[in-house]
Amino acid sequence: MSQLPVPAVDAVPAWVGEHLGHLHRDDEVRPSGRFRGGQAAADAALATLDITGYASRRNEVLPESRRGASAMSPWIRHGLLQLPEVWDAVADAPTRDRSKYRDELLWQEYSRHLYARLGTRTRSALRAEPARGRARWQEPWPRDMLCLDTVLGELDDDGWLVNQTRMWVSSQWTVRAGHDWAAGDDELFARLIDGSRAANRVGWQWTVGAGNGKAHGFSRWQVRKRAPGLCERCPLAADCPIEAWPEDQPTRWLEREPLMAADPSPGVTAGPSSVESGGTPEAVWLTAESLGTTDPALAAHPDLPVVFVFDEPLLARLQLASKRLVFLAETLAELAEDREVELHLGSPTEVLAGRPVAVTHAPVPGFRERARVVAPVEVHPWPWLRRPHAGPVSSFSAWRKGLPRP
Ligand SMILES: Cc1cc2nc3c(=O)[nH]c(=O)nc-3n(C[C@H](O)[C@H](O)[C@H](O)COP(=O)(O)OP(=O)(O)OC[C@H]3O[C@@H](n4cnc5c(N)ncnc54)[C@H](O)[C@@H]3O)c2cc1C
Fold it and tell me: What does the note accompanying the cofactor annotation read (predicted)?
Protein backbone atom coordinates (compact mmCIF):
# COMPACT_ATOMS: atom_id res chain seq x y z
CA MET A 1 0.00 0.00 0.00
CA SER A 2 1.62 3.27 -1.08
CA GLN A 3 0.84 6.85 -1.93
CA LEU A 4 1.93 7.76 -5.45
CA PRO A 5 3.20 11.10 -6.73
CA VAL A 6 0.69 12.90 -8.96
CA PRO A 7 1.97 13.12 -12.55
CA ALA A 8 1.73 16.06 -14.93
CA VAL A 9 -0.71 15.23 -17.74
CA ASP A 10 2.09 14.98 -20.34
CA ALA A 11 4.12 12.68 -18.13
CA VAL A 12 1.35 10.11 -17.63
CA PRO A 13 2.60 7.29 -19.92
CA ALA A 14 6.02 7.26 -18.21
CA TRP A 15 4.31 7.47 -14.80
CA VAL A 16 2.12 4.45 -15.64
CA GLY A 17 5.24 2.55 -16.70
CA GLU A 18 6.99 3.39 -13.46
CA HIS A 19 4.19 2.88 -10.95
CA LEU A 20 1.64 0.58 -12.58
CA GLY A 21 3.92 -1.38 -14.91
CA HIS A 22 3.11 -4.68 -13.17
CA LEU A 23 -0.64 -4.15 -13.57
CA HIS A 24 -1.17 -4.16 -17.35
CA ARG A 25 -0.82 -6.66 -20.16
CA ASP A 26 1.42 -4.79 -22.60
CA ASP A 27 5.19 -5.06 -23.12
CA GLU A 28 5.37 -1.29 -22.93
CA VAL A 29 2.88 1.46 -22.11
CA ARG A 30 0.78 2.25 -25.18
CA PRO A 31 -1.62 5.20 -24.88
CA SER A 32 -4.71 5.12 -27.10
CA GLY A 33 -4.00 6.59 -30.51
CA ARG A 34 -7.41 8.25 -30.41
CA PHE A 35 -8.77 8.90 -26.92
CA ARG A 36 -7.39 11.15 -24.19
CA GLY A 37 -8.58 11.05 -20.62
CA GLY A 38 -9.71 14.17 -18.76
CA GLN A 39 -12.70 16.46 -18.55
CA ALA A 40 -11.33 18.83 -21.20
CA ALA A 41 -11.27 16.06 -23.83
CA ALA A 42 -14.74 14.86 -22.78
CA ASP A 43 -16.20 18.37 -22.92
CA ALA A 44 -14.62 19.01 -26.31
CA ALA A 45 -16.13 15.79 -27.67
CA LEU A 46 -19.56 16.70 -26.32
CA ALA A 47 -19.35 20.27 -27.65
CA THR A 48 -18.68 19.01 -31.19
CA LEU A 49 -21.09 16.06 -31.06
CA ASP A 50 -23.06 15.98 -34.30
CA ILE A 51 -25.24 12.93 -34.81
CA THR A 52 -26.71 13.92 -38.17
CA GLY A 53 -26.95 10.70 -40.20
CA TYR A 54 -26.51 8.50 -37.11
CA ALA A 55 -29.61 6.39 -37.73
CA SER A 56 -28.51 5.28 -41.18
CA ARG A 57 -24.75 5.08 -40.57
CA ARG A 58 -24.24 3.78 -37.03
CA ASN A 59 -23.47 0.26 -38.32
CA GLU A 60 -20.93 1.29 -40.94
CA VAL A 61 -17.35 0.18 -40.41
CA LEU A 62 -15.13 1.25 -43.33
CA PRO A 63 -14.09 3.58 -44.70
CA GLU A 64 -14.06 5.49 -41.43
CA SER A 65 -15.61 8.50 -43.17
CA ARG A 66 -18.86 6.50 -43.55
CA ARG A 67 -19.18 5.78 -39.84
CA GLY A 68 -22.02 7.29 -37.85
CA ALA A 69 -20.80 6.18 -34.41
CA SER A 70 -20.21 9.11 -32.07
CA ALA A 71 -17.20 7.64 -30.19
CA MET A 72 -18.35 9.07 -26.85
CA SER A 73 -18.13 5.78 -24.95
CA PRO A 74 -14.77 6.15 -23.16
CA TRP A 75 -15.97 9.30 -21.39
CA ILE A 76 -19.45 7.93 -20.77
CA ARG A 77 -17.97 4.75 -19.35
CA HIS A 78 -15.91 6.60 -16.75
CA GLY A 79 -18.54 9.15 -15.81
CA LEU A 80 -16.80 12.11 -17.42
CA LEU A 81 -20.01 12.46 -19.38
CA GLN A 82 -23.21 11.46 -17.68
CA LEU A 83 -26.03 9.95 -19.71
CA PRO A 84 -28.54 12.74 -18.93
CA GLU A 85 -26.21 15.42 -20.34
CA VAL A 86 -25.48 13.41 -23.50
CA TRP A 87 -29.24 12.87 -23.86
CA ASP A 88 -29.81 16.64 -23.64
CA ALA A 89 -26.93 17.44 -25.98
CA VAL A 90 -28.73 15.84 -28.95
CA ALA A 91 -32.05 17.60 -28.37
CA ASP A 92 -31.77 19.57 -31.63
CA ALA A 93 -30.62 16.71 -33.86
CA PRO A 94 -32.83 15.51 -36.75
CA THR A 95 -35.76 13.51 -35.30
CA ARG A 96 -34.81 10.08 -36.64
CA ASP A 97 -31.17 10.42 -35.59
CA ARG A 98 -32.07 11.79 -32.16
CA SER A 99 -34.50 8.99 -31.54
CA LYS A 100 -32.05 6.25 -32.62
CA TYR A 101 -29.21 7.80 -30.62
CA ARG A 102 -31.33 8.10 -27.50
CA ASP A 103 -32.39 4.45 -27.93
CA GLU A 104 -28.71 3.53 -27.73
CA LEU A 105 -28.20 5.66 -24.63
CA LEU A 106 -31.10 3.71 -23.18
CA TRP A 107 -29.31 0.46 -24.06
CA GLN A 108 -26.43 1.75 -21.97
CA GLU A 109 -28.82 2.52 -19.15
CA TYR A 110 -30.49 -0.88 -19.53
CA SER A 111 -27.07 -2.60 -19.25
CA ARG A 112 -26.35 -0.64 -16.09
CA HIS A 113 -29.72 -1.51 -14.56
CA LEU A 114 -29.30 -5.18 -15.42
CA TYR A 115 -25.79 -5.30 -13.96
CA ALA A 116 -26.75 -3.32 -10.87
CA ARG A 117 -29.55 -5.82 -10.23
CA LEU A 118 -27.90 -9.12 -11.20
CA GLY A 119 -24.23 -8.33 -10.52
CA THR A 120 -21.87 -11.26 -11.01
CA ARG A 121 -24.82 -13.49 -11.98
CA THR A 122 -24.32 -11.93 -15.45
CA ARG A 123 -21.14 -14.03 -15.80
CA SER A 124 -23.28 -16.97 -16.89
CA ALA A 125 -25.93 -17.21 -19.59
CA LEU A 126 -29.10 -15.39 -18.60
CA ARG A 127 -31.91 -16.91 -20.64
CA ALA A 128 -30.69 -19.40 -23.25
CA GLU A 129 -27.76 -21.69 -23.96
CA PRO A 130 -25.16 -19.73 -25.97
CA ALA A 131 -24.96 -20.76 -29.64
CA ARG A 132 -21.46 -22.20 -29.61
CA GLY A 133 -19.89 -23.38 -32.89
CA ARG A 134 -19.54 -27.17 -32.83
CA ALA A 135 -16.13 -27.38 -34.53
CA ARG A 136 -13.71 -25.56 -32.23
CA TRP A 137 -11.18 -23.38 -34.03
CA GLN A 138 -7.73 -23.48 -32.50
CA GLU A 139 -7.47 -19.67 -32.68
CA PRO A 140 -10.72 -17.79 -31.99
CA TRP A 141 -9.53 -14.59 -33.70
CA PRO A 142 -7.23 -15.67 -36.58
CA ARG A 143 -5.26 -12.68 -37.83
CA ASP A 144 -4.96 -14.08 -41.36
CA MET A 145 -8.59 -13.07 -41.86
CA LEU A 146 -8.23 -9.43 -42.92
CA CYS A 147 -11.58 -8.47 -41.38
CA LEU A 148 -10.43 -9.66 -37.95
CA ASP A 149 -6.91 -8.36 -38.39
CA THR A 150 -8.25 -4.89 -39.19
CA VAL A 151 -10.65 -4.86 -36.25
CA LEU A 152 -8.12 -6.22 -33.76
CA GLY A 153 -5.57 -3.71 -35.04
CA GLU A 154 -7.99 -0.89 -34.23
CA LEU A 155 -8.63 -2.42 -30.83
CA ASP A 156 -4.89 -2.50 -30.11
CA ASP A 157 -4.26 1.00 -31.44
CA ASP A 158 -7.24 2.86 -30.00
CA GLY A 159 -8.86 0.55 -27.46
CA TRP A 160 -12.20 1.11 -29.15
CA LEU A 161 -14.48 -0.46 -31.76
CA VAL A 162 -17.80 0.47 -33.31
CA ASN A 163 -20.75 -1.62 -32.15
CA GLN A 164 -20.87 -3.55 -35.42
CA THR A 165 -17.31 -4.88 -35.09
CA ARG A 166 -17.83 -5.69 -31.40
CA MET A 167 -20.58 -7.97 -32.69
CA TRP A 168 -18.21 -9.47 -35.27
CA VAL A 169 -15.51 -10.33 -32.76
CA SER A 170 -17.88 -11.72 -30.14
CA SER A 171 -19.85 -13.80 -32.65
CA GLN A 172 -16.60 -15.00 -34.24
CA TRP A 173 -15.21 -16.06 -30.84
CA THR A 174 -18.18 -18.19 -29.79
CA VAL A 175 -20.77 -18.71 -32.52
CA ARG A 176 -18.09 -19.45 -35.14
CA ALA A 177 -14.98 -20.60 -33.32
CA GLY A 178 -16.75 -22.45 -30.51
CA HIS A 179 -14.84 -20.79 -27.65
CA ASP A 180 -16.31 -20.02 -24.25
CA TRP A 181 -18.09 -16.67 -24.39
CA ALA A 182 -17.15 -15.67 -20.85
CA ALA A 183 -13.43 -15.94 -21.70
CA GLY A 184 -14.05 -13.77 -24.77
CA ASP A 185 -15.97 -11.27 -22.67
CA ASP A 186 -12.95 -11.00 -20.33
CA GLU A 187 -10.54 -10.62 -23.24
CA LEU A 188 -12.48 -7.84 -24.96
CA PHE A 189 -13.25 -6.09 -21.66
CA ALA A 190 -9.53 -5.94 -20.86
CA ARG A 191 -8.61 -4.47 -24.24
CA LEU A 192 -11.33 -1.82 -24.53
CA ILE A 193 -10.70 1.66 -23.20
CA ASP A 194 -14.46 1.82 -22.49
CA GLY A 195 -14.62 -1.74 -21.16
CA SER A 196 -17.53 -1.95 -18.74
CA ARG A 197 -18.80 -5.14 -17.17
CA ALA A 198 -22.35 -3.91 -17.65
CA ALA A 199 -22.33 -3.11 -21.38
CA ASN A 200 -19.75 -5.69 -22.39
CA ARG A 201 -21.65 -8.53 -20.70
CA VAL A 202 -24.96 -7.48 -22.22
CA GLY A 203 -23.23 -7.16 -25.62
CA TRP A 204 -21.83 -10.69 -25.39
CA GLN A 205 -24.94 -12.25 -23.90
CA TRP A 206 -27.06 -10.87 -26.74
CA THR A 207 -24.58 -11.61 -29.53
CA VAL A 208 -24.16 -15.26 -28.56
CA GLY A 209 -27.90 -15.68 -28.08
CA ALA A 210 -27.78 -16.12 -24.28
CA GLY A 211 -29.81 -12.96 -23.73
CA ASN A 212 -32.65 -13.51 -26.18
CA GLY A 213 -32.21 -16.95 -27.74
CA LYS A 214 -31.20 -15.49 -31.11
CA ALA A 215 -27.47 -15.45 -31.83
CA HIS A 216 -25.85 -12.98 -34.20
CA GLY A 217 -24.14 -14.91 -37.00
CA PHE A 218 -20.92 -13.32 -38.24
CA SER A 219 -20.40 -13.86 -41.97
CA ARG A 220 -18.64 -12.48 -44.98
CA TRP A 221 -21.94 -10.86 -45.86
CA GLN A 222 -21.61 -8.28 -43.06
CA VAL A 223 -17.99 -7.54 -43.96
CA ARG A 224 -18.92 -6.90 -47.59
CA LYS A 225 -21.85 -4.72 -46.59
CA ARG A 226 -20.24 -2.73 -43.77
CA ALA A 227 -16.62 -2.56 -44.95
CA PRO A 228 -16.76 -2.76 -48.76
CA GLY A 229 -13.43 -3.51 -50.42
CA LEU A 230 -11.90 -5.27 -47.40
CA CYS A 231 -12.63 -8.85 -48.50
CA GLU A 232 -11.04 -8.30 -51.89
CA ARG A 233 -7.69 -7.59 -50.21
CA CYS A 234 -7.86 -10.56 -47.82
CA PRO A 235 -5.30 -13.36 -48.28
CA LEU A 236 -8.18 -15.78 -47.68
CA ALA A 237 -10.46 -14.11 -50.26
CA ALA A 238 -10.70 -17.29 -52.36
CA ASP A 239 -11.15 -19.53 -49.35
CA CYS A 240 -13.10 -17.46 -46.84
CA PRO A 241 -13.79 -19.44 -43.64
CA ILE A 242 -16.92 -17.37 -42.95
CA GLU A 243 -18.35 -17.41 -46.47
CA ALA A 244 -21.53 -19.26 -45.40
CA TRP A 245 -23.77 -18.35 -42.47
CA PRO A 246 -22.97 -20.23 -39.27
CA GLU A 247 -25.00 -23.35 -38.70
CA ASP A 248 -28.39 -22.59 -37.18
CA GLN A 249 -28.73 -23.99 -33.68
CA PRO A 250 -32.04 -24.67 -31.99
CA THR A 251 -32.67 -22.39 -29.00
CA ARG A 252 -32.36 -24.17 -25.68
CA TRP A 253 -33.99 -22.04 -23.03
CA LEU A 254 -32.59 -22.13 -19.52
CA GLU A 255 -34.47 -22.26 -16.26
CA ARG A 256 -36.02 -18.88 -15.52
CA GLU A 257 -33.85 -16.51 -13.48
CA PRO A 258 -36.27 -14.86 -11.03
CA LEU A 259 -34.24 -11.63 -10.90
CA MET A 260 -34.85 -11.12 -14.62
CA ALA A 261 -38.57 -10.89 -13.92
CA ALA A 262 -38.63 -8.75 -10.78
CA ASP A 263 -36.35 -7.01 -8.33
CA PRO A 264 -37.18 -7.67 -4.68
CA SER A 265 -35.01 -4.71 -3.60
CA PRO A 266 -34.99 -1.94 -6.22
CA GLY A 267 -33.76 0.56 -3.64
CA VAL A 268 -30.54 -1.44 -3.17
CA THR A 269 -30.13 -1.76 -6.95
CA ALA A 270 -30.57 1.96 -7.53
CA GLY A 271 -28.71 3.28 -4.49
CA PRO A 272 -29.79 6.35 -2.55
CA SER A 273 -32.25 8.76 -4.15
CA SER A 274 -31.01 11.70 -2.08
CA VAL A 275 -27.78 12.46 -0.23
CA GLU A 276 -27.29 10.17 2.75
CA SER A 277 -25.22 11.84 5.39
CA GLY A 278 -23.95 10.58 8.74
CA GLY A 279 -21.03 12.89 9.46
CA THR A 280 -18.66 15.49 8.08
CA PRO A 281 -16.46 14.27 5.23
CA GLU A 282 -12.78 15.16 5.16
CA ALA A 283 -12.12 13.94 1.62
CA VAL A 284 -13.95 12.92 -1.55
CA TRP A 285 -13.43 9.33 -2.70
CA LEU A 286 -13.53 9.08 -6.48
CA THR A 287 -14.10 5.76 -8.24
CA ALA A 288 -13.38 4.75 -11.83
CA GLU A 289 -17.15 4.73 -12.46
CA SER A 290 -17.45 8.47 -11.94
CA LEU A 291 -14.38 10.57 -12.63
CA GLY A 292 -15.94 13.73 -14.05
CA THR A 293 -15.86 17.16 -12.49
CA THR A 294 -19.65 16.95 -12.19
CA ASP A 295 -19.41 13.84 -10.03
CA PRO A 296 -22.01 14.71 -7.39
CA ALA A 297 -19.78 14.16 -4.34
CA LEU A 298 -16.89 16.04 -5.95
CA ALA A 299 -19.08 18.96 -6.97
CA ALA A 300 -20.63 19.16 -3.49
CA HIS A 301 -17.22 19.57 -1.82
CA PRO A 302 -15.05 21.82 -3.97
CA ASP A 303 -12.56 22.43 -1.13
CA LEU A 304 -11.94 18.89 0.04
CA PRO A 305 -9.00 16.80 -1.14
CA VAL A 306 -9.80 14.03 -3.61
CA VAL A 307 -8.65 10.45 -3.06
CA PHE A 308 -8.34 7.84 -5.79
CA VAL A 309 -7.03 4.34 -5.19
CA PHE A 310 -5.61 2.22 -8.00
CA ASP A 311 -7.02 -1.08 -6.78
CA GLU A 312 -3.90 -3.20 -6.94
CA PRO A 313 -5.41 -6.64 -6.26
CA LEU A 314 -8.17 -6.02 -8.81
CA LEU A 315 -5.89 -4.61 -11.49
CA ALA A 316 -3.35 -7.40 -10.98
CA ARG A 317 -6.13 -9.87 -11.74
CA LEU A 318 -7.65 -8.00 -14.70
CA GLN A 319 -4.38 -7.15 -16.51
CA LEU A 320 -6.04 -4.41 -18.57
CA ALA A 321 -4.48 -2.82 -21.62
CA SER A 322 -2.10 -0.06 -20.55
CA LYS A 323 -4.13 2.51 -22.54
CA ARG A 324 -6.93 2.22 -19.98
CA LEU A 325 -4.55 2.99 -17.11
CA VAL A 326 -3.21 5.94 -19.09
CA PHE A 327 -6.77 7.21 -19.66
CA LEU A 328 -7.59 7.02 -15.94
CA ALA A 329 -4.31 8.62 -14.88
CA GLU A 330 -4.66 11.43 -17.44
CA THR A 331 -8.07 12.20 -15.99
CA LEU A 332 -6.72 12.34 -12.44
CA ALA A 333 -3.64 14.32 -13.46
CA GLU A 334 -5.82 16.92 -15.12
CA LEU A 335 -8.09 17.12 -12.09
CA ALA A 336 -5.00 17.71 -9.93
CA GLU A 337 -4.34 20.93 -11.84
CA ASP A 338 -7.36 22.43 -10.02
CA ARG A 339 -7.79 20.34 -6.87
CA GLU A 340 -5.72 18.59 -4.29
CA VAL A 341 -5.59 14.96 -5.48
CA GLU A 342 -4.11 12.01 -3.56
CA LEU A 343 -3.28 8.88 -5.55
CA HIS A 344 -2.77 5.56 -3.86
CA LEU A 345 -1.88 2.05 -4.95
CA GLY A 346 -3.30 -0.73 -2.83
CA SER A 347 -6.59 -2.05 -1.60
CA PRO A 348 -9.24 0.72 -1.41
CA THR A 349 -10.69 -0.67 1.79
CA GLU A 350 -7.27 -0.59 3.49
CA VAL A 351 -6.30 2.83 2.15
CA LEU A 352 -9.62 4.40 3.15
CA ALA A 353 -10.08 2.62 6.48
CA GLY A 354 -11.15 5.05 9.16
CA ARG A 355 -11.26 8.02 6.80
CA PRO A 356 -14.52 10.01 6.72
CA VAL A 357 -15.18 10.29 2.98
CA ALA A 358 -17.96 11.50 0.72
CA VAL A 359 -18.59 9.41 -2.39
CA THR A 360 -21.04 9.00 -5.23
CA HIS A 361 -22.84 5.66 -5.20
CA ALA A 362 -21.73 3.47 -8.14
CA PRO A 363 -24.22 0.85 -9.37
CA VAL A 364 -21.72 -2.01 -9.59
CA PRO A 365 -21.09 -4.91 -7.20
CA GLY A 366 -17.44 -3.95 -6.60
CA PHE A 367 -18.46 -0.58 -5.22
CA ARG A 368 -21.06 -2.09 -2.90
CA GLU A 369 -18.54 -4.53 -1.46
CA ARG A 370 -15.92 -1.87 -0.85
CA ALA A 371 -18.35 0.75 0.44
CA ARG A 372 -19.63 -1.70 3.06
CA VAL A 373 -16.14 -1.73 4.55
CA VAL A 374 -15.14 1.89 3.91
CA ALA A 375 -18.46 3.13 5.35
CA PRO A 376 -18.48 6.60 3.72
CA VAL A 377 -20.02 9.30 5.91
CA GLU A 378 -21.81 10.79 2.92
CA VAL A 379 -23.19 9.02 -0.15
CA HIS A 380 -24.52 10.90 -3.16
CA PRO A 381 -27.04 9.41 -5.60
CA TRP A 382 -25.86 7.98 -8.91
CA PRO A 383 -26.98 10.28 -11.75
CA TRP A 384 -29.33 7.83 -13.47
CA LEU A 385 -30.89 8.65 -16.80
CA ARG A 386 -33.91 6.71 -15.52
CA ARG A 387 -34.08 5.35 -11.98
CA PRO A 388 -34.20 1.52 -11.90
CA HIS A 389 -37.65 -0.03 -11.46
CA ALA A 390 -38.61 -3.38 -9.96
CA GLY A 391 -40.14 -4.79 -13.16
CA PRO A 392 -38.69 -7.14 -15.77
CA VAL A 393 -35.24 -6.75 -17.33
CA SER A 394 -35.67 -9.92 -19.40
CA SER A 395 -35.52 -7.88 -22.60
CA PHE A 396 -34.76 -4.30 -23.53
CA SER A 397 -38.35 -3.71 -24.60
CA ALA A 398 -39.86 -5.25 -21.45
CA TRP A 399 -37.52 -3.12 -19.35
CA ARG A 400 -38.33 -0.02 -21.34
CA LYS A 401 -42.06 -0.49 -20.88
CA GLY A 402 -41.53 -0.42 -17.13
CA LEU A 403 -39.77 2.96 -17.17
CA PRO A 404 -41.54 5.99 -15.79
CA ARG A 405 -42.27 8.59 -18.46
CA PRO A 406 -39.46 11.21 -18.68
C1 LIG B 1 -19.85 -7.58 -27.70
C2 LIG B 1 -20.11 -6.17 -27.28
C3 LIG B 1 -19.35 -5.61 -26.27
C4 LIG B 1 -19.57 -4.28 -25.86
N5 LIG B 1 -18.81 -3.78 -24.84
C6 LIG B 1 -19.04 -2.51 -24.40
C7 LIG B 1 -18.29 -1.98 -23.32
O8 LIG B 1 -17.43 -2.64 -22.73
N9 LIG B 1 -18.54 -0.69 -22.94
C10 LIG B 1 -19.49 0.07 -23.56
O11 LIG B 1 -19.70 1.23 -23.16
N12 LIG B 1 -20.25 -0.44 -24.56
C13 LIG B 1 -20.05 -1.70 -25.01
N14 LIG B 1 -20.79 -2.19 -26.03
C15 LIG B 1 -21.90 -1.39 -26.57
C16 LIG B 1 -21.55 -0.52 -27.79
O17 LIG B 1 -20.95 -1.29 -28.77
C18 LIG B 1 -20.63 0.65 -27.44
O19 LIG B 1 -21.18 1.39 -26.36
C20 LIG B 1 -20.49 1.59 -28.63
O21 LIG B 1 -19.99 0.90 -29.74
C22 LIG B 1 -19.56 2.74 -28.26
O23 LIG B 1 -19.30 3.56 -29.37
P24 LIG B 1 -20.00 4.96 -29.55
O25 LIG B 1 -19.78 5.81 -28.36
O26 LIG B 1 -19.55 5.47 -30.88
O27 LIG B 1 -21.51 4.56 -29.65
P28 LIG B 1 -22.73 5.29 -30.35
O29 LIG B 1 -23.32 4.34 -31.32
O30 LIG B 1 -22.34 6.63 -30.87
O31 LIG B 1 -23.77 5.43 -29.15
C32 LIG B 1 -23.69 6.47 -28.18
C33 LIG B 1 -23.64 5.86 -26.80
O34 LIG B 1 -24.77 5.00 -26.59
C35 LIG B 1 -24.39 3.87 -25.83
N36 LIG B 1 -24.53 2.66 -26.65
C37 LIG B 1 -24.52 2.55 -28.00
N38 LIG B 1 -24.76 1.29 -28.38
C39 LIG B 1 -24.89 0.58 -27.24
C40 LIG B 1 -25.14 -0.80 -26.96
N41 LIG B 1 -25.33 -1.70 -27.93
N42 LIG B 1 -25.18 -1.19 -25.66
C43 LIG B 1 -25.00 -0.31 -24.66
N44 LIG B 1 -24.78 1.01 -24.87
C45 LIG B 1 -24.72 1.43 -26.14
C46 LIG B 1 -22.94 4.08 -25.44
O47 LIG B 1 -22.89 4.72 -24.20
C48 LIG B 1 -22.43 4.97 -26.55
O49 LIG B 1 -21.29 5.72 -26.19
C50 LIG B 1 -20.59 -3.52 -26.48
C51 LIG B 1 -21.36 -4.10 -27.49
C52 LIG B 1 -21.11 -5.40 -27.90
C53 LIG B 1 -21.93 -5.98 -29.01
Answer: Binds 1 FAD per subunit.
